[in-house]
Amino acid sequence: MIDYPKYGKKGKWKKEQSIFGIVGFILSVLGVVLWGIRGFILWIISLILCIIGCLEEDKAHGFAIAGNIISFICLILSLLSIVFLKTLLNGLI
Fold this sequence. Notes:
By secondary structure, this protein is mainly α. It has helices at 19-33, 37-55, 62-92. The model has no long low-confidence stretch (mean pLDDT 81).
């Protein structure tokens, strides 16, 4: 069989998506849904997978970059909420 090249817009080569980036993106979105300790663990795993996806050469990095952004923002927000709750509980006790 002849393997024809894949073309994107304006005749440029269309790169394959990184499987690590896709899996990391899915885990980061799932972590948003499962907010809490399960989400925190998923965000760490997705951050690692998305970094690996960004380092792959000759692959498209769109999902990996989006997963990195979602994971990083959610990790920061969850850490800030933990600090806020800890200070709030220390003030009440």
